[in-house]
């Protein structure tokens, strides 16, 4: 309290208390760290989102383009492949050996090529096994197992809807000269990815004990993982010759 010239007393305000500067700096550092961490999480989320889009959408676009281009090439070869001998065409080629049709799974045709490596399957096709168990091609006329694989997610995802296949459903393999019509008789929704017995010439895990003309579809499961394998088995019911109009068998009509 101070005296004034007119004899009154003047009250002076006491200096306002201040927070310790050190504490204010400490809180600033914490806030900055939280802000940086939040930005990193946002960035990570964006990167992860872009990766998911690439894996599940863009790879499908690229694979479909590659598969369509290759399929057109095969069809073109078939259209011009006629040496006048009447002998069947050479199916086992790098271009593709034929087309798989599975109405319950997809209305689209799936080009079938030799091999099951990622390099082959990533082009949006199905591949027949050459290792660890060699597939028996139906065009050979020999008894055995025509075993195939394709991606379930990404890279065309040709076997994405394999779980929609039921016993009794048709599976048709189309070549230049013939339609091979199979009927699904057994399913195995989950098995180890190391279980190669499902590819055997006589797939005993499907319930068969005698040699026959079988087809096996394999892919990853559950969806968006590759932990296990999903298996579908079919048995050849009949073979139809391809006519000039390439009229599909009744299982593919309608």
UniProtKB/TrEMBL annotation:
Region Disordered, residue ranges: 1-24
Keywords per UniProt: Hydrolase, Membrane, Transmembrane, Transmembrane helix
Organism superkingdom: Bacteria
Membrane-spanning parts: 30-57
GO MF terms held by the record: hydrolase activity
Active site per database record: 151, 220
InterPro entries per the UniProt record, alphabetical: Sortase, Sortase_Class_E, Sortase_dom-sf, Sortase_E
Pfam families, per the entry: Sortase (PF04203)
Protein name: Sortase
Organism ancestry: Bacteria, Bacillati, Actinomycetota, Actinomycetes, Kitasatosporales
